[in-house]
Amino acid sequence: MAENPDWVFRPAGPASGLDDIGHLGFQYGPPEKPAVVSGMDIARVEDGRIAELYTLVTEIRPPS
Prior knowledge:
The protein has strands at residues 8-11, 16-18, 21-29, 37-46, 49-60. By secondary structure, the protein is mostly beta strands. The radius of gyration is 13 Å and the shape is elongated.
């Protein structure tokens, strides 16, 4: 993120959850341009706090 301070994270659809697991897809890249990185965050919540967080990168494209 320090290399591209103007890039932004954007949600890719709504968040979803079941019991103590939540999921949110994301896109990351320059504002107003196609995303360079796509992926998802998966979190397990315990006592109202994130106990585990996994980030999966599913695609990396060259910047346009």
